[in-house]
Each structure stands twice: as structure tokens, then as C-alpha cells.
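agent: user wants the structure for HD-GYP domain-containing protein from Streptomyces fuscus. delegating to structure tool.
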Amino acid sequence: MEGIPVRARVYVACAALGALLCLLPLPAVRTPWWALALLAALYAGCEQIARRRFAGTFYPVLLAGAFLLPPPAAALVAVPGALLSQGAGVRRLWRAAQLALAVWAAARVHWALGGRDAVVAPDFPYALLPAGAAVLAFCLVLTVLDGSILVVAERVPARRAWRGLFLRSLAPIAVHGLAGLMMAVLWRSPYGPVAALLVLLPMGVSWWVFAQVHRERAAHQATIRALVQAVDIKDGYTRGHSERVGQASMMIARELGMDAERVEVLRFAGILHDVGKLGVPTRLLRKDGPLTPEERRIIELHPEYGHEMVRGISFLGEARGAVLHHHERLDGSGYPYGLVGAQIPESARVVAVADAFDAMTSNRSYSRARPVPVALAELERCAGTHFDPRMVQALVRSVARHGWHPAVTAEAPRPPRPRSTVVQR
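agent: tool returned. relaying C-alpha cells verbatim.
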């Protein structure tokens, strides 16, 4: 329990006491003990596998218990698996209390709405009503407890602790609840518990697939993070610039109504747009004085260097084109190839606006940060020549709606040189 605040320990103790009160009527309740023991063992096994392989919790068995057993017995199903899970003792106690309270609430709601009879003699679609209400109760209790522990243990503001928590968890728990209902119906059918256990097979396979996708996504994020950190270390004046350009690119893409997958790709494009600076000598990136024509030519090679670095990363998709072309201009005066208008990929036109906007609103070695309205006005002035007007207007609308709060990127600001353009190194 070391490192856990006293107030959090007291809160966990209160939750455990509440769970114990839910379990107290158990001796007086007619309970099929063999079913309780089987479900508890099954949940404990699933919990171990889920925690080690999928980094998640497997709720179908718990919800099947809520649909099959009296509330005190259903609450007990969660306790052995939670107490045997990994982690500090107080965390395991908290998990056991939290799940016991949630399952007890789900079982109470299910039985109060006549769900037991609907499961014993399957009555569809009516059986979905008490099951759905039970899932809502289960999700609501988990949400209340999860948010409360954040408020108590970590002093997270209440509004932030619960914001979106219920809606984010409802969809996956609803899927688990449907699987739990299928288990309960089959359990009560002539085919018995063996048939009910077969429901777990497709659920396990689908969860495994989801876990693989999650791991692949995490690997993608780690790859991008490593590249960006390398650029930030090399060019300290633009530290944090890549993440902000990714955020601005995402804002533009959303304002243009792009789908979620493409918005994510454009975020990657913004984050990685300057990765080619790894191939540029550090002395040029950090130079305070004016660049010579030869030095500027060297720096202007960074889009091509970046494209070579990311060309083999298949998941980046059109982000690779943005890395190569984000310094092109609509009038053909950009680099590296002097593309004109629609010849420039749309992703590159998005990142070009995001890049210029953050460059103007952040302190650099060669310029002081401009106010956001001034930067937007400069982008609008250059729209149609340097930048795509659609992208500029999308950013203007998004900033008006959501705001923009750029951080200072230079660790040690130096006197800036006056610059009248939005050209970035």
C-alpha cells in the first residue's frame, strides 16, 4: 500500500465494506453453489489470460453470473479472480470491491425486471430489456467508482474525472453483456453449461484479434515517437513543434469532414513532416544568423531525406507524400520539385498550413512568436499563392471554435531577427 494516499485507502476500505454488505445475505439465499463455483473459477481463469495477453478485463462471465444467480451470489463470482490478479494488495482489493458492487447492481436490476424468467424460458426480444438495463447499471457503477477513485486518489477535478467515461465504456461492455446473455440462455437450455462455455470461444478470438490490432497500433506510435524525439533532440528550437503540427493538421482534416482513419494519417503526417532534419547538419538547424544560399540548399533537402526515411513504413499511407511535399507552394515557388496547385498532394497542403501556423505562433531561433490572429491573417494573405485557401479557412474555423494555445518551443530564447514571411526552415 506504499505510495497510496490515506484518503484513497479509506475510500477503498469503504468500497470493500459496501461489497461485503452485498455479500452478507448469501447464506440465506438459495444458491446453486456448483454454478457459482464454476463461474468464479471460469472468471478467474479468463481474468488471468486477459490481463497477461490482452491488458483488459473479460466481463461476459461476470454478466452471465448476474443473469443466472441471485445478486449476492453473482457479486461473489468476481471476488476470487480479482483478488488473485497481479498488483499491490490494495489494488486487488479495490478491483474486487468495484466488480462485486457492479455485478450486484446489475443482478438486482436484472431480477427486478423479471430477467430470470426471461432467461429460464427464453422470451426474445423481451429478454433484451432486463439484460440491457443490467448492462447500464453495471456500466454506471463502474463509471462512478472509476471517476471517484481519480478524484480521491489523484485529486483530478470531478468534471474531468467523469467526462466521457460512461459513453466510452458503454459500447464494449454492451458487447460483453450480449455475450453474457447468450451464455445465460444456453446455460439454462437443455444443452447446459458446456454449450454456454462455447460462447467464450468466438469472444476470445475476436478479443485476440483486437489485441493484435492494438499492439500493432502501439508499435506504430512507438516508431513515430522515436523519430520525433530524435528530431527534437537534434533541433532544440523546434521541440514540440512536430506534435503541434500534427494537432493542427488533425484540426484541419476534421474541419474538412475527413473520416477518422484519414484524420489519423494526417496527424501522423504532421508529426513526421520534419523527420528529414535528421539528415541536416545540426549547426545549420541551430544557426542564428542568415543562411548562405548553399546552406539553404542543404536545409531544403530535408523533405527528400524524410521521404527516404519513411518510404518503407506502409501504415503511413499518404502521410509519406506530405513529408516530401509540405514545402511546395500553390504558385510553384516551393521545394523540392516546384509543384503547382493540384499537383501538390492534399495531405501536403494540409500540413503546409499547419506547419506555417505553428512556426509563426512559436518562438524560433530566427523569429518571435506572433499572436494567433496575426498568424491566421498572414495565412489568409498568402492563401492562393503559398497555401490552399480551403485548408487555411478550415484552420481559421477550427481555431475559432476550439482555440489554440501554442507552447514556447525554445529552451533559451535568443533575440530574434525580423522576418516578414512565413517561410520555415
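agent: one observation worth passing along. The radius of gyration is 28 Å.
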